[in-house]
Amino acid sequence: MTLQRRRTLFACTIAALSLFSSAPADVGHGTYSPDPKTHIPWSINSGHSLFWNGAPYMPVGVRVDADPTDIASAAKAGAKDVIVDVSSGRNSWDEALVALDASKLRFLLRINSLAPMAAGYEISPQTYRMPGIVSPQLVSMPMPGAKSALAVVVLKRDGSVLKVERVPVVDGKFNYFVRPGNDLEHVLYAYPETSSLQQLDWWEGLDQHRDELMGMLRRAHLGTGIRGIVNPLGNLLSLPGNEVTLIPSSPYFQSEFRGALLGKYHNVDVLQRSWGMSANGLLTFEAFCKLVPLWSGSSGPALLWNPENNRTYPVETRRSSYWRDVVESISTSANRRFSRLVRAIRKVVDLPVVQEWNGWSSLYEGDQPTVDGIGSHILGKTPGQIADAGSRPASTVLRQSRPVWQLATDVDPEAPLEDVASIGNRAVFYSALTNAARKTVVGQQFDEGLSTQALTPLYFPENATNPAFAQRLPNGSWWLPGPFEGNRIDLGVGFSAYRLRGPQGVQIVMWAQRSGRYRLRAKKPKLLGFRALDNSNPMPKLLPNGVELMVTTCPMIVTGTEECPVPEATYQATAAEFTELLKTSAEIHHDILEDRMFYGDYMKGYDTDPFSSITLMRQVNNRVAHKLGVVLWYEAENSRDTNFSGTSANTGCSGGSVLELRNPVVVPVSGFVASYPVPSMPGKYDVWLAAKIPIDKRGDVFVIAGNQSFGLLTPPTGAYGTGYGWYKIGSIRTGGSSQTVKIIVNGLIPGDIAIDCIVLTQVPFEPDGLNHPVIGNK
Fold first, then answer.
1. DSSP code per residue over 557-577
2. With contact defined as beta carbons under 8 Å apart, do 556 and 511 qualify?
3. Which of 92, 570, 709, 744 is deepest in the core (most CB within 10 A)?
4. 362 torsion bin: left (phi>0), alpha (psi -120 to 50), beta (else)
């Protein structure tokens, strides 16, 4: 079929689908008709419960396969409700539906076949990378499923490109002989042409998937037991809103990308400037929409590549909007086509459509939700694990503009129903596999009074995880994370706070480790308002430069300011730490005159601008503690001697970035190493590592400090952010000469690892989030 013919068919398909869904069914309620004479109304209420034919549907069921034997076994164990995994392909659902009808089971169909994978170019220079090449050598990388790959050889010192060559991939193996131009270190990057589960095919693949699913739904005799369709896209690894690592090669994608670029930039000169490039010969938007980036984040050569003619074009990556534009285009396509798919399903069978939560995705994050329900996977069994797993789906549900059904579609059989329901779920399906386990879980029942009750949320940004955690608060509301701009605020030991910028504006939330009456300093104390979440009366008393009030261990919302009020105790503790640092400076004869001058200026500004002043004072304390060797705090991403994959921005981590190892496919003989020079300051230091390391990879991580090698022998403590924690490495005694601390990762197939910081401290340290050791703490 010619390209023009394919484009014509594509345009006709889209037009037909637009007509087919131009009068969408009402989201959030509908009428299901299993036959021409039967009409069953359903709706979702403000308690996020499904009402079926006027009654609340609050099942406690189990998950089963589309196997009549498994279905009958679940019914025999006492199950009344099930989620059934089915395929959207050509395999018939008839046998499963007959078994469901015979067992009188109520059920949801979960589309469990593989979602359509996009074909294109995988842009993961952190993964397909071989550093340390100084002489001619053959490099082999596994690339299962790839047809070809682009090989790019770069001089590490200045990033200059020595060779760009497209090579075939044979039997899933990329083999390339690198011939460096000199004896300096070179790096080989490879870019597979492949299909990836990380990127769903929203173009040709989705058309085929939609047609198959619609055909199955039209032919199936669903009967009166069905209650909804789960995961209409099928089984996939990620959803839009997550990181894009594959640039599709589909001509339909390129056509849409071209239209998006044309609508945004109007002419190619503006587009070139926005992409940080200057290229001769690229005169049309058709040419620009075919370009593929060879960098991602801080890794990879600063080039755009045209696969059609193998030409490359230099780019100023720091100011290039390429990645923002391509992610926006893919996300727009995904949202539009997903919405059409859901509407098409509702046209064929007017049933609730549920999508299982899979990250902060644009498919269900927005003012106008496309789906009728959000499902969650709760694979923990303790209250803390259940709260953490269920909090993000609950946050998504509660922030919708209309009621959305909240259900737990895959639950650990040992998770108590009461805890799973407490986070807002109004339907629960356990992943119980044995009849004994099924009998236990299906014996539980919901309190139907919950059907009209919704959670009252207090949100925090993901970046502020520790000090904030998903949990029930004293007044019955829930602390829930959200995809908000914001971060924790450093108030030292004794107080915690964060700033959140959401649809309602800026919100400051703070609390104390010990309840008490405290004095807070602020620029304009008269404008401040306080609301305690435990419904207590803070009893604020206005003072000349602040306010005195009760601050408890329960979060308190501060209004009337975008800057956090500063507890007087924080100022006093910060000043006391600097006094201790001055003593240390005098003892070791280390001059910190410049820091003393700055500190004096910040202290003088405290009365008029408390928050800015205390922030700068605490930064000086941390900097001086490092200078004096009291606390050596190294940001991992600042290593000047490393062969890790690269750095990545993460505003919830120390310094706003981390050093990453992104699932490399080739491991150097000496492993992956990041080095940090330790100044010649004698003393005994405790060594701590802050990182995100998968459990099965902790045995591959080592720290060499002094003349000792340490492994990660204990689980992390002081968890914060998205999976980060602190590892106690051990203790070392330094002499009077300079040394080096090294982080080493070995192992044949390292997984994704992120290193935040490494800390050597002479003062006692009990990690709690990103709080620094307290100076003067003996």
1. EEES-SS--EEHHHHHHHHHH
2. yes
3. 570
4. alpha
